[in-house]
Write a structure and sequence with these properties.
The chain has 373 residues and is α/β, with parallel strands linked by helices. 43% of the residues lie in helices and 17% in strands. The protein has 12 helices and 15 strands. The strands form 4 sheets. Strands 2-10-9-8-5-3-4 form a 7-stranded mixed beta sheet, sandwiched between helices. A 4-stranded antiparallel beta sheet has the order 11-12-15-14, covered by helices on one side. Strands 1-13 form a two-stranded parallel ribbon. A hairpin with a 4-residue loop joins strand 6 and strand 7. 44% of the residues are buried. The structure holds pyridoxal-5'-phosphate. The site of pyridoxal-5'-phosphate (PLP) has 13 residues, from helix 3.
Amino acid sequence: MTIRQVLLNPGPVTTADAVKQALLVPDICHRETAFTDLIKTIREDLVTVAQGDDSYTSVLFGASGTGALEACITSVIPAAKKILVVNNGTYGARLLAIAERYGIDTVAYELPFDRPLDLSVIEQHLAHDPEIAAVALVHHETSSGILNPLTPVGALCQRYGRYFIVDAMSSFGGCDIDVRRDHIDFIISSSNKCLHGMPGIAFVVAKTPALLATAGAARSYYFDLHQQYHALENTGQLPFTPPVQIAYAFKAALDAFFEETLAGRIARYQARYAQLLAGLEAQGFTCLTPASMASHLLMTVRYPDNDFDFEALHDTLFAQGFTIYPKKLAIPQTFRLACLGEITEDDIIAFLAALSAYRQTRLNQTTEAGHVG
Ligand SMILES: *Cc1c(COP(=O)(O)O)cnc(C)c1O
């Protein structure tokens, strides 16, 4: 079995050899200086990726991305206040579900995945409901592949004096995000999507005064944003055992990110996305993500023939080293393809060839069956 697989799911992603090799470190306790130094540089790196200045900080958790979302939502909203959540996909719905699980009052702005946000709806809510403490928005809705706009929503939050919380799980490091320009107070992501690390570390980049204001407000013990920050600032240590080797791999991934630069990574994703889209369309597939709202990160694709069998397609491609991802939208004959990770131009060429071969085989089978019948 080859170690390298071409993952066309939106994380965990295909990682570079240097990231895989970085896992192999001497056993070390996370309370040693060598490790706390590593954590410090990772925290600084994350603020840099977010284009923050020294009024921003970052907090890490040993968790999948959802852990940091849970930490943020359940720490930031004060008792008896509300959170406004824009819900135009599975991940928006998850933000609502987290708040509801903890008994936090929610206001939902629900809209279909293919309709652009109406900013006046958000503004109406903010203008008429002073109990709304924060607006939460998913930047890249990984369920469909659409991007929600950060800058105008951030400007509204700034104007009405509310916190702006952004789930940028699958766009952080892969899109032009600037926490200062976009007036973002809290932005959440994880090690294993556009930053190309291994799964296991989730983080929040936060405006420090906003984070300090959460002291004592957390509803969870483990996912207490302020407590985690306090421990990191005062001891340099994560209070609970972190995934040590994953942190070394994450640092290797961040080093590679800075070498490539944000602009370089965006350009790489755009090139893979365009190549994938052109190849799919040439084969008769259609992309359901509206072009005007589409990210260059992931697309929802419709299979051209009626006899679509996701499992059969997945298994055939998987045996050849390609991983595709099931649909989230309730639209038949669809599946998802992402171009995050260390995916090369040749990988896409090989994938398109494998896809075409699968379809031809299936069409031939159907025709033969037709003749026999
Ligand atoms: C992947 C993803 C998550 C969840 O991340 P986990 O690491 O699986 O917990 C949340 N939001 C968005 C937008 C995502 O793409």
